[in-house]
Amino acid sequence: MMYLSEVLIQNAQLDTFEELLEVIRQRAPGEIHFKIDAKPSYPDTPPDWEDKLEGAFVGINSITHNAY
Fold this sequence. Notes:
Blueprint: E1 2-3, H1 4-10, H2 17-27, E2 34-35, H3 49-58
Parallel strand pairs: 1-2
């Protein structure tokens, strides 16, 4: 299981949320579960940060919602 808190601690040199997303994408293969147990404190962390992290973990780059 990959814990977000561990990723943040192990990658303290990261400066942006986008860099964090890239680390998550790189580490995701071979992992089954992703536990979001902390909130990133980057200035560019978006309001939908949890969705974006989960998307990076499962390999979804963006989600578009269609209104019908």
